[in-house]
Design a protein that fits this description.
Protein-Tyrosine Phosphatase, Chain A; eleven-stranded mixed beta sheet; Mur-like_cat_sf; UDP-N-acetylmuramoyl-L-alanine:D-glutamate ligase; about 30% helix; globular; about 25% strand; single chain; cytoplasm; Udp-n-acetylmuramoylalanyl-d-glutamate--2,6- Diaminopimelate Ligase, Chain: A, domain 1; alpha/beta; about 500 residues; 3 domains; seven-stranded mixed beta sheet; disordered N terminus; ATP binding; 16 helices
Length: about 500
């Protein structure tokens, strides 16, 4: 992506990157830059970055042919234009993007949210609390962005450094006083947040995840910890003290840090009062104050999300009653333990839970409010970490009364190898049900549910688009469930006999 500047006319690489070595010139003055050689325009800086599949250093010749006036790279290159050599071109690129955008984070309070689970929900809760307190708050999360003027969905956790810089600039232009940014481990490992001065960091939890990307738990935790390096000296952190890995971080955080807890000791705590399928009530305690909070979203994990968001609001001086109003205003978040109510006599929830840990939390939360059977529809396709698949099967077998393995894609093309991997986690594979067609699987599970039961549709969560036969087709578990429920609730007779259910033990 090409990033041009509006607030700043030029950026000196000599000043911005003092550790860099510039060859072929005394300084390189940048007015716009590009990280893709194909889209590089005349007089732009081309940034050569090493990606997971390609090395930008191999495309320098194409960039100069398109008019690049200088190159930023990690090694010396045989080219006729000046070259700025840095140790980490991804980090340098992010810093340049922020500088070209006018360094908007220096004039806003930017809150970074990271963790294995709960990032998106915490982002929305923080935004709601601060807006309830009268602030104008921009947000970037996996559900989309809010730049203070309009909101748009997108399909990423954390955008590229160029898009993030442009988004923060627009937030500032639109009068945002605060910005909440979801920071994925991939974005942190690729230094997309470099150049941003964070006023606060919220860490929800640190589990063993994304090992297919990071290679090891150590690398994954190291990537998450990078966010602390973006905190300004006057900033603060909020950490979940009930999470072992997060608690370990507390001793390593140099800035002021606040801990939250539901079961252990924390500076901001909660205790559950009552919980039903439609809502839960808990007591939120901060200092000498304790107030009740009633949320439409249920589960211990949501209480943790509320605690983290509340801590951020309280540090910013928001009074506890306003914090509670902000928490209670968020009645649902697409694909995050989203309750579907169409008049049916059983519970239906759609949750993104696509990891063993997230699926276990979702099933545990629903088990506590389910008087009948707990039915789980879930899937794992080839793009997932293969090591997760048996664990998903183990969690589903132990946590649900009836588990149905399906595809995570609309095409139902999840390979038999994927299904076999999931079945490896079952102690009794013959009890597992397999139905590759996801729509049919959801409809069968709903048709199987009786009064008092609960159906969890897991693995996809929020609406998204998938490509099938070169067409973009919507895949929305919520719409699939609602369409079936509305029709079933208005029909005295079944629509048809339903799809064929396969028993699929590993042979």
């Amino acid at each position: 992506m090409t990033l041009s500047t509006q607030p700043t006319s030029a950026v000196s690489l000599r000043r911005l990157l003092p550790e860099a070595k510039i060859m072929g010139a005394e300084d390189i003055v940048v007015r716009s830059c590009a990280a893709n050689s194909k889209f590089c325009l005349p007089d732009e800086l081309f940034v050569a970055m090493v990606g997971p599949h390609q090395d930008g250093h191999d495309f320098v010749e194409e960039a100069t042919a398109n008019g690049a006036s200088a190159i930023l790279a990690e090694r010396a290159l045989p080219t006729s234009v000046p070259v700025c050599i840095v140790e980490n071109s991804q980090s340098a690129y992010a810093q340049i993007c922020q500088a070209l955008a006018g360094d908007p984070s220096k004039r806003m309070r930017v809150i970074g949210v990271t963790g294995t689970n709960g990032k998106t929900t915490v982002c929305r809760l923080i935004q709601s609390i601060m807006e309830t307190a009268g602030a104008t708050v921009g947000m970037s999360s996996s559900l989309g962005y809010d730049n203070g003027y309009d909101r748009q969905p997108w399909d990423c956790d954390t955008p590229s450094a160029a898009i993030l810089a442009d988004l923060l600039s627009r937030m500032e232009y639109n009068g945002c006083t605060h910005a909440v940014v979801e920071a994925s481990s991939e974005a942190l490992s690729r230094d997309r947040l470099d150049g941003i001065e964070l006023d606060a960091v919220a860490i929800t939890n640190l589990r063993n995840d994304h090992l297919d990307v990071h290679g090891s738990v150590t690398n994954y935790h190291r990537a998450k910890k990078k966010i602390l390096g973006r905190l300004r000296e006057t900033g603060f952190a909020v950490v979940n003290a009930d999470d072992a890995a997060c608690e370990k971080l507390l001793s390593q955080i140099e800035t002021p840090a606040l801990s939250v807890a539901l079961h252990g000791a924390g500076e901001i705590t909660a205790s559950i009062v009552e919980r039903h399928k439609s809502e839960q009530t808990f007591l939120l305690s901060a200092g000498d104050e304790t107030v009740p909070v009633c949320t439409r979203m249920i589960g211990d994990h949501h209480v943790y999300n509320c605690l983290v968001a509340a801590a951020v609001g309280l540090v910013y001086g928001v009074d506890l009653k306003t914090v509670v109003r902000g928490l209670e205003r968020v009645e649902s978040i697409p694909g995050r333990m989203q309750r579907i109510e169409c008049g049916q006599p059983f519970g239906v929830f759609v949750d993104q839970a696509d990891t063993p840990d997230a699926l276990a939390m979702a099933l545990k939360s629903l088990r506590r409010v389910t008087h009948g059977r707990l039915i789980c529809v879930f899937g794992s396709d080839g793009h997932d970490d293969p090591g997760k698949r048996p664990l998903l099967g183990r969690v589903a077998e132990r946590g649900a009364d009836l588990s149905l393995i399906t595809s995570s894609s609309i095409s139902g093309r999840g390979s038999l190898e994927d299904v076999h991997d999931v079945l490896d986690g079952y102690e009794r594979p013959a009890r597992a049900h397999v139905m590759p067609d996801r729509t049919a699987a959801i409809q069968w599970a709903l048709g199987e549910a009786q009064t008092g039961d609960t159906v969890l549709i897991a693995g996809r969560g929020a609406p998204n688009l998938q490509t099938l036969r070169e067409e973009e087709l919507p895949l929305d578990d919520v719409e699939i469930a609602q369409a079936w429920l509305y029709q079933e609730m208005n029909e005295e007779e079944p629509i048809d006999e339903g799809p064929v259910l396969l028993k699929f033990p590993r042979g």
